[in-house]
Write a structure and sequence with these properties.
four-stranded antiparallel β-sheet; DNA-binding; globular; Jelly Rolls; 2 domains; homodimer; alpha+beta; Arc Repressor Mutant, subunit A; about 200 residues
Chain lengths: ~200, ~200
DNA sequence: CGAGTGATTGACTTAGATCAATGACCGTGG
DNA sequence: CCACGGTCATTGATCTAAGTCAATCACTCG
């Protein structure tokens, strides 16, 4: 219940939980929209079928993420949602949510703010992917992900997850970390990664 | 006036235009928020200063794009906005916009829908970047960017722009296009690029 | 105690980045 | 009107960083 924890209790209680087996479909392109979702466990893939039924992955939603937000404002789902692994999702039904937004502008604003921040985060990640060098991409990430005012990024997932977020193979990440540490550019501990002050580079 | 063309005329008329010279600053991290912006010409970079003043590019906004949406819901800008090239931006002042959203839930919903679609588009682009092979990344892009129901993507910008969007160098894009064309997987014309029906790959 | 996952390192290969050159096609200013 | 500077499209040669395959070790969990 991370993503929407600011919702009024009454509304949160309307949400329901659903377990999905790997490969199970949550909704299909063309289905009438009835809810937006939050991943609690596992991964859910959003897939669009292009011409000739060729499936194209639009997004792979991970725990804590909201998905199908646009369903609030559309009649039909625009893509399929399929569990990539066994998963649990929380469904927030569309009707009550929209009604609440209409009744309470402050709530609507809160939701807009959530969406706006999401956009920022996505743009930053995309910008990061424009950096070709693994070393510089990682440094960029560390600078941004460090707790504000500090130079330490705490890592909550595994390094494999971090590699995926960076768009690197885990091997490349390990090597880059090792190289940066050898050069004295970072320091590692079990809790996180610390940038060391470094005039050059 | 693309991005917010659904705004009531009264509100659109409140927006103002501003020309920026290359390198000129539109707002700074910590400034009080007063507006959100749309790029009309040129590029505007959003830059955050990490610890030790090291600048980190968060985003590079291009013509037609809205930026600093989160300013609507924050007291202070969280990053600098600096013109990367000579640019013209349209500013939508925050006060009237928020007032309109409070007064008219339908308008608020419209804005939420814009944000939600933006999120979808960004997620799709990010997902695309996870595809390592230039060939497959391009094919993925073509499948998505083709006018719905068709297999042709019309290209409005230059191939260089397309390369940037794909996260490839333009040389790599040219070569990949040439190879795909040689293999008969696509056909090119001045207007666009057409996927050819192809059972394998 | 295996089985499964994460972390790490080595060896090898290659796709794509980089550098460079060329031709087509403007628009424009003298 | 044309020469010139600029951008786009394209192709060649070269190089290297990162991907791929593979092996090992440490851990944890039934």
């Amino acid at each position: 219940m991370r993503a929407l924890d600011w919702l009024p209790t009454a509304l949160r209680e309307r949400s329901t939980c659903r377990a999905l087996k790997a490969g199970e479909t949550l909704f299909r392109q063309g289905d009438k929209t009835f809810a937006i979702f939050e991943v609690e466990q596992g991964r859910v893939r959003l897939i669009r079928h292009a011409v000739d039924q060729h499936p194209v992955v639009l997004h792979s939603a991970r725990p804590g993420e909201l998905f199908a937000e646009a369903a609030l404002f559309a009649e039909r789902y625009q893509c399929d949602a399929v569990a990539a692994t066994a998963a649990r999702v929380r469904a927030y039904p569309k009707g009550p949510l929209l009604a609440a937004f209409r009744a309470d502008p402050a709530l609507a604003e809160r939701f807009m703010a959530v969406l706006a921040h999401q956009i920022h985060a996505l743009r930053a990640r995309l910008e990061e992917r424009n950096i070709r060098s693994a070393r510089r991409r990682l440094l960029h990430h560390l600078a941004l992900a460090a707790a504000p005012g500090s130079r330490t990024m705490k890592l909550d997932g595994t390094l494999i997850d971090l590699a995926a977020e960076l768009g690197l193979t885990h091997e490349a990440l390990y090597r880059t970390l090792a190289a940066l540490e050898k050069d004295g550019a970072i320091r590692r501990s079990r809790a996180g990664i610390t940038l060391r002050r470094h005039p050059a580079l």
